[in-house]
Design brief:
Blueprint lengths: L7 H14 L3 E6 L6 E2 L2 E2 L5 E2 L4 E2 L12 E6 L1 H12 L9
Antiparallel strand pairs: 1-6, 2-3, 4-5
Length: about 100
């Protein structure tokens, strides 16, 4: 397939759905290296991308110039986080 014919928005959606089918938490998020917020709130300086489903930064070395980064947390890592959050804090073995 020639690169000119690639539907990037459709391919991004397809990849996100594949991860969700595996029970993972995944998706695009604004790059923290080049996207600014004011205490977590949008500043209005950066555009929202329907293709990525998030705001897009200006591009930097952290995101490879895209302004967004792919975040993927596998189902097993999510399970580990849930177990960690549900366990009592002082349950570490005393030696």
């Amino acid at each position: 397939m020639a690169q000119d014919n690639i539907d990037f928005a459709a391919r991004i959606k397809e990849v996100m759905e594949e991860g969700e089918q595996d029970g993972a938490a995944c998706g695009w998020r604004a790059c923290t290296g080049c996207h600014e917020t004011n205490e977590g709130a949008e500043t209005g300086y950066f555009p929202y991308s329907k293709m990525f489903g998030c705001y897009v930064g200006s591009g930097c070395h952290e995101c490879g110039g895209l302004g967004v980064v792919w975040e993927y947390i596998s189902a097993s890592h999510l399970d580990d986080m849930i177990r960690s959050l549900n366990s009592p804090q002082g349950e570490a073995s005393a030696t």
